Amino acid sequence: MPVSRIAVAMAVATALIWFVAVGCVPGGTVPVVRIGLVAPFEGRYREIGYDVIPAIRMALYDAAVGGGVGGYMVELVAFDDGGDPDSAVEQAHKVTRDPTVLVVIGHWMEPTTRAASGIYAEEGVPLITDSATVTGDSIFRMVANSERLRAFAMRCLPDAEFHMDFGESVTEAAGYVCSLSGDSGPVIGPPLWATDQFRALAGDSLRGVYYVTGHAMPDDLPGGIGPMLRISAEWSESPLAYTAYDSAILALDAIARAASSGYPTRRAVEAALRDADLEGLTGHIAFDGGERVSAPVYVYGWDFPGRLRLVCGPDHLRRRTER
Which of 2, 37, 125, 264 is the most exposed, fewest CB within 10 Å of its CB? Predict the structure, then answer.
């Protein structure tokens, strides 16, 4: 269903973008195209949706302030899949029915992205995703794939027990961690183990628990946190936010380049994504067959009572003491 709880905030953001884009254009209108966002905004995984949407809104605002996107006004249309695969399919059908939606960013969870990915391919809508496992036509992965994540984790913590189930729920993941004995040694899991829900459910069992991910904490971004000081505190501490911002500037860049040759169709936007070459908050963004080239990888450890520390970072394995 459309995201009702953020409707007012979205209306304000869209109005601001419209004012910046057309406020000085006398007697004219600017054609509208849209970026779709599908994420969980209700239910257990709602933290994910509310981490990513402010960052994407900010990217659209930055583009509008910078002079617009190839002569078009770009709106964001957001849908809530609740972290449920069946709902993800339903929302994917809804967002792709809108002919002005040229690209979708979603679904921010492995099971929902996997369930919906075929719909985007059928409808010819490019999908920008943080899924480590989903592949296919028209899919552009912003993070390292699951094989690279596993390999990096094994190099970082070769003596750890590996529990790399990318499809399990957060309750299953926390239940597994809680079932381990206190002397079982370190265990490393997938990116879902970074969520506040996992931290809350695992509780006292977090010591010795690690996860591998393509999402950096703010201090570990390639350029550090200096360029991010202007960002609202509502999302500046969420690692998903920086990937979300980069996903949005990638979509905007593709729309602008597609528009340079005429109306930016879905096919033209997909072609532009394949030729992407830009710098983002998370590093360089370029693709080879839908895979991000040199996607960064990180391993973090949970320190009781729930503080994170970087164990290994991208490009080379390095150890850090707790900040």
Answer: 2
